[in-house]
Amino acid sequence: MYFNRLLLVLLCFTLWSCSNDDDNTTTDNNILIGKWLRSDYDNTYEHSIHFEDNDFGYTADKHTTAEGIVSTAISFDWSVSNNKITLVFDSHTIISNYSFTENGNLIINDLSTLEFIKQ
């Protein structure tokens, strides 16, 4: 009986002493991974931002006309810390707060006034 109580007490102390090893940056990064389409898209124009899991990303514009489709892409490196996202382009850097709407759309304040919809 004494052994069972001792074992129970040791088990409780072991569980209480465990620390939280969660890495919030990784969690934040994982939720951003993928293609996000800006909410003003239509049949003739799309602007999207793509976050890859290796801290690489790119923005893409696609224009559709009667003559055909014209696309452009601009690459960037990115990182997240404390609800701020850093996008490092060749010619400039954007550091901005980011958040999600109730329906899961992405808002990057200093990148666009429009929401991005995950695809």
The residue-averaged pLDDT reads 84
What is the helix tally?
Answer: 2
What is the rounded distance between the termini?
Answer: 59 Å
CATH topology: Lipocalin
Give the percentage of residues in beta strands.
over 45%
Number of distinct beta strands: 8
Largest sheet: 8 strands, antiparallel
Cα gyration radius (Å): 22 Å
Q: What global shape is seen?
A: globular
| Level-2 CATH architecture | Beta Barrel
Going by helix content, strand content and strand pairing, the class is alpha+beta
Counting structural domains, the number is: 1
Report helical residue fraction: 10-25%
Level-1 CATH class name: Mainly Beta
**From N to C, what is the helix and strand string?**
HHEEEEEEEE
Low-confidence stretches: 6-12, 19-27
Give the neighbour order of strands across the main sheet. 7-6-5-4-3-2-1-8
Protein name: Lipocalin-like domain-containing protein
Keywords: Signal
Signal peptide: 1-21
